[in-house]
């Protein structure tokens, strides 16, 4: 008797499973052609979004690699110039204060990976003038130096300390 009850329960479960599969298939069959197209379109959108995200991640990874290579190259040239200074090969000319300020400003800008245009717009300075200040060809007023350093995310005092440190490193 008990065995018969178990068998009937198994059969009932099989019927329920078959019914669930049939209901799912029936739902798919019940879709209109427009609904099928909408489902296919949504699936394509998901696939395209995943591909776009992968492409964006790949581009970001390539940029990160490029920046790391640039940083490594920058460190390599800095070590080489420090080595030259250490050997007594003092072919370097005396650096003026405006050249030191320009060097520090350019270094701050490139480390933050900002363009001249971005910094000049944020500081309210013309792009050409900022470029000349960075190359040490123009002396900027204290107000302009303040706005440029603020645009670079440092205070004027911090920027001037960096200039002093740079000048000290050249004298060593």
How would you describe what is shown here?
This protein has seven helices and no strands. The protein has two domains: 78 residues; 77 residues, lambda repressor-like DNA-binding domains (434 Repressor (Amino-terminal Domain)), CATH 1.10.260. The mean pLDDT is 82. The radius of gyration is 34 Å and the shape is elongated. Helix 3 packs across helix 7 and helix 4 packs across helix 6. It has 172 residues and is mainly α. The longest helix has 54 residues.
Query: SSE string, helix = H, strand = E?
Result: HHHHHHH
Question: How many separate helices?
Answer: 7
What would the principal axes of the Cα set say about the shape? Answer: elongated
Q: What's the number of structural domains?
A: 2
- Poorly predicted runs are none
Strand content: under 5%
- Range of helix content: over 70%
Number of strands: 0
Quaternary structure type:
single chain
InterPro entries: Cro/C1-type_HTH, Lambda_DNA-bd_dom_sf
Domain HTH cro/C1-type: 105-159
Biased composition (Basic and acidic residues): 73-90
GO molecular function: DNA binding
């Amino acid at each position: 008797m008990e065995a018969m009850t178990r068998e009937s329960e198994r059969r009932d479960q099989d019927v329920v499973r078959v019914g669930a599969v049939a209901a799912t298939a029936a739902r798919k069959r019940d879709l209109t052609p427009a609904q099928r197209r909408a489902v296919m379109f949504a699936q394509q959108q998901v696939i395209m979004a995943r591909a776009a995200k992968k492409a964006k991640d790949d581009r970001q990874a390539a940029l990160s690699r490029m920046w790391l290579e640039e940083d490594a190259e920058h460190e390599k040239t800095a070590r080489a110039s420090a080595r030259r200074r250490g050997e007594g090969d003092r072919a370097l000319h005396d650096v003026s204060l405006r050249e030191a300020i320009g060097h520090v400003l350019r270094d701050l800008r490139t480390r933050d990976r900002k363009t001249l245009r971005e910094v000049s717009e944020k500081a309210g300075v013309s792009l050409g003038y900022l470029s000349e200040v960075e190359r040490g060809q123009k002396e900027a007023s204290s107000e302009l130096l303040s706005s440029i350093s603020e645009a670079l995310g440092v205070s004027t005092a911090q920027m001037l300390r960096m200039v002093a440190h740079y000048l000290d490193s050249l004298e060593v």
